[in-house]
Amino acid sequence: MPERAGARLLGDGCHPPEAADILRRSCRRNRSALPLNPSDHDATTTVEPPVSDLATDSPPPHPAAPAAVAERSRWRAAGAKVLHFVPAIFLFILAIQLMKRGAGSLAPHLENTGFFDNAVSTLGLGWLGAYFVLSGSPVAATALTFHSAHGITTLQTFTMLSGSRLGASFIVLLVGFLYAIRSENRRESLGMGVLALSMSAIVYVPGMLLGYGILRSGALDGVRWTASSDVQSVIDKGWGWIVRFADGHLPAAVLFPIGLAVILVSFKLLDRVLPSLDGEKHADSKGHWLRKPWPMFFLGCLAALLTLSVSVALTALVPLASKGYVDRKEAIPYIAGANITTLADTLVAAMLLGRASGVQVVLAEAIAVAFITIVLLAFAYRILQKRIMALDEWVVGTNRRLWLFVGVLFIVPLALIGMGHLLGPIGH
């Protein structure tokens, strides 16, 4: 075949060099088209790869390349966390100092606002305030700041702190609503929010009564956990000049809301630094230990302690419940544990503010809630689980009941504020 083609080319008037070149190319194409089975052609025949393939082949990647890329990614992630952590801590301390300075000017006028008349008003105010900022920590810091400026009493501080914890889980219900829009398992998504709010009330209402008894007994009078003089000196040198500058150029009453805005920013930055709990990401890690109350209790304690936010720790349960990896009844101990250690950042804020009675308020709340929680889990867990799940199922059973539940969430704190206003100021 190649000989005949070459003859035709020579016969058509091609010059011999050109004909030879065409003949070589034709033979190469014919050899590359031969089957690769050795039985179909001579074993001595070699198949040459196309010239274009030889030109474009690149050496295989170095086996260590993926590991190097992963290592660089880890270092970048660590660097990003540091870049967020440093300003987060700086802003947190700055916010406390600004709120402390601003509270000093606002404290004399609190009695005339109607919101700080007595402990009933502050309970409703702390509860409702946590709804609007979608977190209890800023509201708790506000109560402690006014307390440090002698604007509200120890009892008012205690009830406002309790109210902030009662409303802190509202974001779980809100996330449940949003998740139910794109999830087929509507009952589980919404039910987790209802469960978080109900469990907080079951623990914090009796815990509030017990905690106040602890405060009244004087058992914590010897606790004087405040920042040392050396720490206060460092704070004054590092942040005092900013506070003095703001105090000299802005009205004193404006410093408090500015500080509140700054502390919200600091918590937002801390959310990016501290471990995140992604329910969908960790859904495949379901194990038998998720069905046991005490491991779930300690897991909830650890989650809220690491994230410094009960909102983050509990919101992670919504996708897990929606996908069926965690039953709502199995999440009860987790919620109970998170409700205790979420007071860690509030305790730090109380120590920075420098008034021992504020630290005692936080400790009394934490001790009381921990005691109530442990007693319930140890001696009445099955009864608690049955009753609270019956309430949960009843609420999410129909849209009318669910909206009734949401209405009660707002009516109760508003009623407390109104009742406090009717009672009027109660002597300090």
Task: Name the descriptors.
mainly alpha; 0% strand; disordered N terminus; 428 residues; 2 domains
Structural commentary:
The protein is mainly α and 428 residues long. It folds into two domains: 2-50, no CATH class; 116-225 and 275-423, no CATH class. The protein contains 19 helices and no strands. The chain has helices at 2-11, 16-32, 51-56, 65-106, 119-133, 137-148, 154-167, 170-182, 186-217, 229-249, 252-273, 293-307, 310-315, 317-322, 332-341, 344-353, 356-379, 381-396, 399-423. 39% of the residues are buried.
Question: Total domains, how many?
Answer: 2
Elements, N to C (H/E): HHHHHHHHHHHHHHHHHHH
Q: Describe the main β-sheet briefly.
A: none
Structural shape: globular
Summarize the structure.
The chain is built from 19 helices and no strands. With 428 residues, it is mainly α. The protein folds into 2 domains: 2-50, no CATH class; 116-225 and 275-423, no CATH class.
